[in-house]
Amino acid sequence: MKPNKSLLIAALSCAAVLSFVTACSRAPQAPPKEVQVQADDKMRFDVTAFEVRPGQKVSITIKNVGTTPKFSMGHNLVVLDKQITEHNIQAKFLDPASTEAAHDYVPPGDKNVLAHSKLLGPNESDTVTFTAPQVPGQYLYVCSFPGHYTQGTKGFMTVK
């Protein structure tokens, strides 16, 4: 028995249309997460934890509310991949970052950096926008100005 050519073409056409329609539809997306963080002369972030959903858009605004000049007390905010932990951050990120004053203490091309602000002086602010990782877990965010992380300028973004 020979298959009907018209029936076969119709079936393939329906499959192609169905595939196109399902590929174009997306799951509903969470609204962007907006976070405001302040850094001060005591080397602290005022927000040390926040949560996001996998793949959610994140917008972090950091403001330096201190009064000490940028060259001696600048602040930035660097969101790191979850491969960087409190146990390995010194060797894997902070040591290389400490030699990158020309790049706001963020090594160019570092694949562990998910997002970062510019280095800020008193009363300056910057906003970084990025997409949260798909992988759930804790992601460190830090100020990479030399010595600031060890004094407590850090926090965690939890993807869940």
How is this structure best described in words?
23% of the residues lie in helices and 28% in strands. It is of the alpha/beta class and 160 residues long. It has one domain (33-159): Cupredoxins -  blue copper proteins (Immunoglobulin-like, Sandwich). Strands 2-8-7-4-5 form a five-stranded mixed β-sheet, with no helix packed on it. The longest helix is centred in the N-terminal third of the chain and has 20 residues, at 5-24. The radius of gyration is 23 Å and the shape is globular. It starts with a helix and ends with a strand. The model has no long low-confidence stretch (mean pLDDT 89).
Rg from alpha-carbon coordinates: 23 Å
On the 0 to 100 scale, the average pLDDT is: 89
Which stretches are low in confidence, meaning pLDDT under 50 for 5 or more residues running?
A: none
**CA-to-CA gap between the ends?**
55 Å
Specify the helix fraction band.
10-25%
The top level CATH class name: Mainly Beta
